[in-house]
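Annotators were shown the component list below and the corresponding predicted structure, then asked to write short factual statements about the assembly.
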Amino acid sequence: MSQPDFSANLKPHPQADGAATLAQERGQSDFDTNAISKHLFGDKYLERQARILKIVTGEKIFSKTNQANLSRPDRYKLGLARGKKLRQLMNEYKWDDDDFLMAEWLVDDVLPHHLNISLFKSAILEQCNEEQRNFWYPKLQAWEIIGAYAQTELGHGSNVRGLEATATWDQKTKDFVLHSPTLTASKWWNGTLGRTATHAVFVAQLRIPKKGGSGGFESYGPHPFIIRVRDEKTHKPLESIIVGDIGPKYGYPAMDNAYMLLNQHRVPHEALLSRYATVNRETGEYVKPKNTGAMYGQLTRGRSQIVMNARLVLARAVTVAVRYLSIRRQFRDQDADDQSALEEQVLNYSTVQIRVLPLLAATFALHYSGAAMQKLYERTRGANAQKESDLNELQELHFTSAGLKSLTTEMAADGIETCRRAMGGHGYGGGTGLIQLNADYLSKPTVEGDNWMITQQVARYLLKKVKELSTSRSNANSSRLDASLIRFRERSRSPPQFSDLSDDLSILEAFEWRTAFLAFEAYESREVKKLPWNSLLVEFRNLSRAHTQAMLVVYFYEGLRSLDSLPSSTKTVLWDLFRLFSLSAIEKDAWQFQRSGAIATKALDQLPKEILTLMQRIRPHAVRIVDSFTLPDYLLNSDLGRSDGRVYESLFHRAHVENPLNRITFNPRYWEDELVMGSRDDGHILSKL
Amino acid sequence: MSQPDFSANLKPHPQADGAATLAQERGQSDFDTNAISKHLFGDKYLERQARILKIVTGEKIFSKTNQANLSRPDRYKLGLARGKKLRQLMNEYKWDDDDFLMAEWLVDDVLPHHLNISLFKSAILEQCNEEQRNFWYPKLQAWEIIGAYAQTELGHGSNVRGLEATATWDQKTKDFVLHSPTLTASKWWNGTLGRTATHAVFVAQLRIPKKGGSGGFESYGPHPFIIRVRDEKTHKPLESIIVGDIGPKYGYPAMDNAYMLLNQHRVPHEALLSRYATVNRETGEYVKPKNTGAMYGQLTRGRSQIVMNARLVLARAVTVAVRYLSIRRQFRDQDADDQSALEEQVLNYSTVQIRVLPLLAATFALHYSGAAMQKLYERTRGANAQKESDLNELQELHFTSAGLKSLTTEMAADGIETCRRAMGGHGYGGGTGLIQLNADYLSKPTVEGDNWMITQQVARYLLKKVKELSTSRSNANSSRLDASLIRFRERSRSPPQFSDLSDDLSILEAFEWRTAFLAFEAYESREVKKLPWNSLLVEFRNLSRAHTQAMLVVYFYEGLRSLDSLPSSTKTVLWDLFRLFSLSAIEKDAWQFQRSGAIATKALDQLPKEILTLMQRIRPHAVRIVDSFTLPDYLLNSDLGRSDGRVYESLFHRAHVENPLNRITFNPRYWEDELVMGSRDDGHILSKL
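Structure shown to annotators:
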């Protein structure tokens, strides 16, 4: 393999010249890639990406060439080495936290140290009193300690109140006794804790002896404690702690998700993170949480990050799909006269377009939604300049953003797979560069609030809204949601039945009408007919989806409306994407739009044709649109999606030059146990089982 | 870890006692598990499963404990060793081919030798002339040679006529010259060929010099040649061959999918497999294929196997989900008064039921459809007893079974993921036992005919049918499809608008009416309006789906109708499953059923309630139903889905006892390059990159 062989002289068939195809694709569109790139990401982000990219691609440890061939233990080791190296680079180049996160994103591994800079850090910042924060924060920032966040248990995830771990106050010794009373009380899934962490925030049910010495305990619910997990020198677990990695999962091979049990493990009084609540050291009295106020902003910020991340993940899958499917040709057009013509570009088939192009459009819907949430958060941060309508919107977003988490992570997770299948045979190979992204991202629909379960929160808020609005009128501080519910209440007997699919405002109103229709229907079921909550969960989920789709459509629309300095032809493409996104969503739920009277039946019948037309309009710009996502080839790590279009050369190189399996000659004869030819190994793989 | 520690004394929380829960689940239902098990699989299959299971679980090499931790090269090695061992066992126990395949299924790896017993074997059986078959078949059966099937290329998959490899007849030397003229002509994806095979069937464009010596060649399209790939002694590729493994894919880590290039590689005249066509050795004349007759039966058989396999795959995912979700409890019922009650079994939530129970029902739909196809194949095999109506049905199935491949592999692939997500957090872990199944099965929607592309075949047949039927009437030999198209033609102005969702015959007819509606609509678009083929692909796909769903519903119905000796309470459950399957399918496409007039609007509005009721009726039987699939724990390899319900004990054991990562203490300090604590390894992972 190290010798040049006859494959060195071979080129792809002329029709498979990807570089020429992408040049042609880029030449046929005047979509302003650079302007959109700046518009989507901003100069600062793009500068950071370019700067960090140069540094990480200069280090061998970040090479992705062989990582898919490694064993799980080696993948963890590689992650550990990469984490260390990134931190060394951080010191060397004086990176800030965002620089570090950019590096981790480009390297495309969630590294073993990750929880120290994410959940552990937030816990220290948000749950410590000042003294605790002053003590711990510098240590974690310097990576003197590596922290994890141990909340979820083997037996309880979403239901935090059901956690089994206990923290019992011992008034005599002034200690808390942390304990895992059962096997299901074992902490579980906690990242960084399995092998890496030195410390953890341990969440346990706080129990304080009852007054009067009569025995028994009063329970105060889950509280956070900071504990040392492993010895400072040996890095072995402390004696009363059992901790380890839970083993291979779908994705995140470099991350050490943990199990952890504590056996009557004593920690001092100051281990309880005491910003909101504490136990009086002398009297053993529980000091109640202050009224913490609604932290509307924080949640909105976190959820906007989820949406923005879903956008990037989807952008990545769509970039690979659009580029490859432009280059890939298969079959000639059935209706073509000239049978000597090149085969058709696969992206020209409507069955391929209808899977990929709405996802291309969806990346923009996610972008404008995430951006609007960020802006709202920024606008409402300072004490000044807080309009009441902003605060209303923020509050509403706080309660309904569960729907955004649910829908957008589902869109991205499903979107990766849709793109993969659209790529046909080669979509199943390592050349997609999507295997690890796919496996990693599959966690999102179930973590941080299961996507189906949390839709109840949205429904609950909408039910409350319908109840409140039964008497009120729209006013200056009403949100769009309020106004749409009031509009529905007033006109429910004459539904709008919009029929002009090219009228964007009608589209917006149609989405909002559907939401209102479903909200009032749910209200009727629950509040009037008093049906069991459990019998309505599916209805609630549909309601949440409908409302969230309306939000995406509205944010998308408003994002485009506020555009200014872009060339008009580029704007036209963006508006086409808006329409494709909206009409595709309507088509998928056509029955709801019909049933609610939001859209006229005739218009629904026209949808397939309209969607086809929009796809034909967008198609010539597809490559330039994905170019505007500016995802580096190093990140994509994809033969199919590389920006220079050398798909087939790259696939062949990965197989013929890079694959370590091809350095071994095997012995396939079943009557000989030897596996590697001539090695007399006697089938030694057994020792690894 | 080898020492007992305090975790040895811990048990799960009492509410998490899976064994007790499953006992209760099994006690609350009288669904006749044993009878259904026999009904679904037959005694012969169950006997074989039990017999082979005992043998493979007795061999250490088939232990699945650590395989998810291995590197890709080691996974291939393990596969190679397993393949050899299975063949040794085959000799020892005198297994037939079905025994061998059962063993491979239970071991749950597609092994490196697999193509020798599948595609290579079929090619030898079907494409050889008698002499060739007599020569090659005994060799492959004895595994003296290991064969692969090299058809697909880097640049062409579905479009077989577009293959680039050439086979040029040299009249002087009486040789064929096999050649790969470009990089995209490289064979690609071909299983078993990468490292294992000694031989392959090589598919290439046959070219014969034009008569008259004027130069140039006549092309005859793709033909199969048998070639030796590797040296008999050294197992190194022959000199004019470049061959290797393409590297890691989504799944199939034990399989060596190949690339292969041939450089002016000469093979003798008899290398051309000559059952249907050959080249006259003396004159160089092409001898035309005989009229091969329509091989309706073979395709039907192959497709029935795909359906039956999809059934088992889905059964496996549903078994894991139903058992785990019965045992898993989370949150109390919102409406419950007693807040000290156990938390709710997750399978009781309607949002979980609506994802899992229709898939449970779908396994039966797939079963009866696959079984009906098998029966039809058997019935039409012999020369005797062939009713014309059977032959009609077989012909129809031949042309429409692409829709079954497309829909059922999609149902199974999506179904695994739906079950996984329904399991929440633990659904993302290795404890599901679904990770490799999921990754392997994702290939199915795109291989052996891309699921979207092949729906054109169904549409093309239905367009032809509509055309033919424009004048004919229903007669004794009409298929159900014919009859339903004629019915639609005659009554298209008065659609049935069925309103009784409990009337099974109406349900069947509603599905058929929808198909007919879409078929006539597509006919109008293509044949009357003459719209471009490419603009109709999405419509065609919808039509294929509709027709295929109708087939599944009809087969399911007919399968249940022919049931006899089952207890009536068990039959009732099966009929509920039929209804759940049908009504769920209608709900997902409610707009089509409304638009076509198949079902009345009011009835469509009632669907969610009907579905909820059916799910509540089926729920108590769920565990016993999945028990009837009789999938061995060894196959499932699932902590969550094990038949004894010891979910949490098993998860903990996998993590704490089995995970090799926990045998190593790491050094997390970023200022030290050492990775394994105390090893002074200086970060040696670099050498593996």
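Statements collected:
1. Chain B has three domains: 67-111, 146-283, 296-333+341-626.
2. Chain B has 21 helices and eleven strands.
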